[in-house]
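General statements about sequence and structure are easier to judge against a single worked case. For one protein, we set the task of working out the structure tokens from the amino acid sequence alone. This step matters because it turns folding into a mapping between discrete strings. The amino acid sequence and the backbone structure tokens for this protein are reproduced below.
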Amino acid sequence: MAERRFSRVAILMGGPSAEREVSLSSGRECAAALREAGYDVVEIDAGQGTDVRTLPDRLRAARPEVVFNALHGPFGEGGAVQGMLEVLGLPYTHSGVAASALAMDKQRAKTVLAAAGVPVPTGRIVPRAEAAAAHAMPPPYVVKPNAEGSSVGVHIVPEGANRPPALGPEMPGEVLVEAFAPGRELTVSAIGAPGEERALAVTDILSAGGGWYDYAAKYETGGSRHVLPADLPSGIAEACRAHALTAHRALGCRSLSRTDFRFDDATGALLALETNTQPGMTPTSLTPEQALHDGMSFPALCAFLAEDASCDR
């Protein structure tokens, strides 16, 4: 690695989202990795509710040179915390305000990806009441929040279903209704400084019991198995890697992103589901596994992100 620009790092984690516990886990792992890499690290829980309002003062008191953003969910990934860090003039990891906000809005992001030549499922935004009252499209289809991660609030409506899904309190006033994409769960990360981005190896995600890759499969012990590199037909792995790079650039992402795909062996259809600007960051998370496969250790990955941090302004 080139000569370091920073020595004191504040890690933002926790925060006010449904993915709070995931973020705390990511933050602790990143803190340990950065300390191993030689950084002076202070861990800051972004808090919940009104605690968030004190975050600027707590950051000023910590006096970091750079902020490592390990937050998940709309507050940490959707541009809000990025905007605050811009105002404070603190360099921060991962994508900037505009890319974060765009990628968090799944339907708008899909519009951008489709225009860039990345294949995506058809879908539309529907009022929650409408989606709960009748089928918004012929089954099979998926109903999910338009701006959440970690499969929070996802409902799969199978072929032949007589009724629409019962939508719980976690669902917002408007939801994304999307054609169900059958097949294998694939994912690939794009990493690198601007102009030097590259795609890592493709992972095939096998959920325990053969189900879909829901919250439990993502985070519970034994919930899934990662096959890396994925055993794919000729050309599909390269297509995934090419689409992941295109998505990263089209959305304006910075440093690191991960794009999730569905591949149907029966038809050969490959569809991009979404791009995540803040992938999970524990040593066994998908992106760190891919980085390690390509020769980058977890401390080296965290150090790269810290050193590549910047402000948009």
